Amino acid sequence: MDRHLLVFFLLCAVILSACGDGGQAGVKLQPAGQYPTATPTVAATHTPAGQTLTSAAAGTPAPRFALSGRLLVLKGGEFLLYDLATDTISTLPIPRAYSPAALSADARLGAFVAFPDFAVFDLITGEARVVDNPGSMPTGLALSPDGNWLATLTGTITVGLRLIATGDGTLYNVASSSQHPIAWAWTTDNRLAWWWGDTPSPEPQVFDPVTGQSVSLSEASAEIAAPPEAALSPDGKRAVSVPVASGPAEPETCFDSYIGLLDVPFTTAQGVKTSSETIWTEPGLVASSPQWLDDDTLLFVKLGVGTCGQVSESGLSRQIMALELAGGTPRPVAGPLGNADDPNDRIQQFGRQVTHLYSPSPDDAYIAWIGGGVEQGETLLNVTEIASGRTVTLLRFARTDAQDMADFIENYLLRQVAWLP
Questions:
Q1: Do 256 and 308 form a contact (C-beta atoms < 8 A)?
Q2: For 263-274, b where at least 16 C-beta lie within 10 A, e where not — what string?
Q3: 8 Å CB contact between 182 and 141
Q4: Residue 22 reports pLDDT greater than 90
Q5: pLDDT per residue over 396-416, tens digit each?
Q6: What is the 3-state secondary structure (H, E, C) of the chain?
Q7: Lowest-pLDDT range, 6-20, 250-264, 386-400?
Q8: Is the dihedral of CA 271, 275, 279, 281 positive or negative?
């Protein structure tokens, strides 16, 4: 199971819809538009390969855990590889990123928005391939679990879904619509399934690159393990969903967030399972971004409590919570997560998803997470030991390290952490 797969891209994409006529495979999309920027863009500040890291204060050694493995870190618009055993970092020589990376199940490949195009990179060799975007504004992407396919979503008026082979860059038009948002998920055998995201009872289609056509899930004899907003357990037997609390115009339609367990598979040739078992909620809960610590422990982010999805200023907020499936009350294990005020983090702006800001270690003993933010004037890479609750800061950049605030936001703010196997 790929803990770091960024399903939050899909949620961001699903909410984009507009009026008009819909189409399907082979529809030509509108020309590329301009990607909105919240702050001025300045030259990237590069980190020399092999630089030794310090934590909270320059020149002051930090108390450390005996950590191993590597962290993929997005700093501004460049990806860093942090070797935890040697306490050194190197910068990946790849195009500037305008989104966090989505990873394959084995974390060998990553993909991100390299506006106006997309890019796929190899975390072992450091090589990158820029994937041409013949459509309009890029709004979402996801790698298949085996890393052989990249699904991309573009457009805000006419929305188009494409499938791209990561091996040779061959591109296929899958679906397009100006009337319906498009949702998608990978089948258990790494095929792309999609459906109209505003349909109460979805009827997934599976795209066939050989014919260039989509057929119903039943005709394709395929299964979808979990819907795009859910996280699949490491053993593949359960999925969890944490819908963000909603506050529509009519107060009587508001609902609180809840932790819902879903049957696996989510969709088979016989139909879609839309119900879930609520295992935890509380009045006013606003939460999102589930991940699994292990097969019996769920992680999610408590954004706070409030009314109709609006978080109040008091109370616990942006904390990483752990919930045992055997029962009990969620407990805070790390946080508060930073970057609530990152003007360039569109995943938070549109979907209130923060999965890219925290990552459990492969041995389930630690959580790496990003703290600080624009208002605090510093950005932090922290690691918390789950058993003891002890936290150390591995990496810190301050506003004073940058030329100005725009430089700090564009080139220093830490925007993603993923603990690699």
A1: no
A2: ebbbbeeeebee
A3: no
A4: no
A5: 999 999 999 999 999 999 999
A6: CCCCCCCHHHHHHHCCCCCCCEECCCCCCCCCCCCCCCCCCCCCCCCCCCEECCCCCCCCCCCCCCCCCEEEEEECCEEEEEECCCCEEEECCCCCCCCCCEECCCCCEEEEEECCEEEEEECCCCCEEEECCCCCCEEEEEECCCCCEEEEEECCCCEEEEEEECCCCCEEEEEEECCCCEEEEEECCCCEEEEECCCCCCCCEEEECCCCEEEEHHHHCCCECCCCCEEECCCCCCEEECCCCECCCCHHHCECCEEEEECCCCEECCEECCCEEEEEECCCEEEEEEEEEECCEEEEEEEEEEECCEECCCCCCCEEEEEECCCCCCEEEECCCCCCCCCCCHHHHHHCCCHHHEEECCCCCEEEEEEEECCCCEEEEEEEECCCCCEEEEEEEEHHHCCCHHHHHHHCCEEEEEEEC
A7: 6-20
A8: positive
**Cis amide leading into 116 (omega within 30):** yes
- Say which residues have a Cβ less than 8 Å from residue 329's Cβ, sequence separation at least 6: 280, 323
Let me know: does 100 contact 86? Beta carbons within 8 Å.
Answer: no
Mean pLDDT of 142-171: 92
- Inter-residue contact 384 to 334 (CB < 8 Å): yes
Dist. CA 285–CA 302, nearest whole Å: 7
Is the C-alpha dihedral spanning 39, 44, 50, 54 positive or negative? negative
Summarize pLDDT for 124-147 with one digit per residue, the tens: 998 999 988 887 888 889 999 999
Q: Whole-angstrom Cα distance, residue 247 to residue 11?
A: 17
Closest CA to 183 of 172, 194, 175, 192: 194
